[in-house]
Amino acid sequence: MNANNFRLPARRLAVVAAATALAAGPASLAHATEDQGQGQAQGRASAVVLRTGLDVSLLNKSVNVPLAVTLNEVRAPESAEQTALTAKLDGVDGGRPFTVLGAEVAEAKATVEESKGRAEATTTLAHAKLHVPGLPLLSLIEVEQVTSKAICVAGEKPVASANLMGAVTALGKKVTLTPSGPVEVKVPGVGEVRLDISQTETTTRTAAATALELTVSVNPLNLNVAEVEGTVTLAKATCETPPAPPTSPASPTTPAPEVKPQGAPAEAGLAETGAGSLTPYLAGGAVALLAAGAGAVALARRGKN
User: Fold this and answer.
1) Euclidean distance between CA atoms 151 and 51, whole angstroms
2) Is 296 domain-assigned?
3) CA spacing 20 to 30 A to 32: which of 8, 198, 292, 301?
């Protein structure tokens, strides 16, 4: 017999596969879907005091050096905190360490508490000065204090906030910042900086806050650095809502077993009338005695007659 005679059409194979899945039971399919959904949900939090994405061109653009520096970058699910006060870079200042950022306070903290369904990240930067290669004596920016916070709690709307307090100086000029839009600072012969403040964003499960975002284009004249371009982020916090903590279901109340006193009748109907389990037999005996007594009386009367 030809083996081709046993091949099932594709449509019949699909029906067989579907039937097999249903035969496995709806409970199995439900558990698989539930496990897949739980695997995708996870609480997260991150915080960073400083992050740079700058390109530095040295010696009339003959050498390009990426300036990627982070300070106090932390991530959770596990709680983390860092408080380093300076960020340095090697290889861009004649072989000497170059201080990119120095501050009196620089804190970043990220926490995820799965048992509470809560993720939170916070940053604080105070009395900080940011420098780029080629401008060792002139700060790119100086801030008195900036903070950011992101809070994500299961069942609640995520919250993001960023604050800028005190004076801000960019390229030696005092800057008045407003929430209405970015501010541009231009210094001839030095460069320009664009400042975006207090940026926040939330979704149904996430929150992000950045205290200060800089777009930098510095080209100082007659120095060893031809050009510095890119972005700088100060005080950023993000979070993602953890799944809701499981609630322990209340156990059903078990009724207390009925305790009957010793010697109590087994049947409720008999207990209500005061009768016991021997009542039918006693009643039958009483009927028999009554019948025997009646017969004796009848015989006695016949004898007298």
Assistant:
1) 21
2) no
3) 8
**SS3 for 21?**
helix
Helices assigned H by DSSP within the chain: 10-23, 26-40, 268-273, 279-304
Q: Which two tokens stand for residue 151?
A: 């809070």
Query: Looking at the domain assignment, is residue 268 inside a domain?
Result: no
d(CA 181, CA 170): 16
Check the CA dihedral 32-34-38-41 and report its sign. positive
Instruction: Look at residues 187, 97, 107 and name the one whose alpha carbon lies nearest to residue 148.
Output: 107
Number of folded domains that form the chain:
1
**Residue 120, domain member (yes or no):** yes
- Six token digits for residue 229: 């371009």
Helix, strand, coil distribution of the chain in percent, nearest 5: 20, 45, 35
Q: Which two tokens stand for residue 118?
A: 């809560």
**What does the DSSP 8-state code read for residue 9?**
P
pLDDT digits (tens, 9 = 90+) for 23-69: 333 333 233 333 333 445 689 999 999 999 998 887 666 677 788 89
Rounded to an integer, what distance in angstroms lies between the CA atom of residue 242 and that of residue 264? 59
Q: What angle do CA 182, 110, 165 make, to 5 degrees?
A: 35
Please indicate, yes or no, if residue 168 is contained in any of the structural domains: yes
CB neighbour list of residue 128: distance below 8 Å, 6 or more residues apart: 101, 102, 103, 104, 106, 142, 143, 234
- pLDDT tens sequence across 172-214: 999 988 777 789 999 988 889 999 999 999 999 999 999 999 9
Which domain covers residue 233, as residue numbers? 42-240
205-225 CB burial, b ≥16 within 10 A, e <16: bbbbbbbbbbebebbbeeeeb
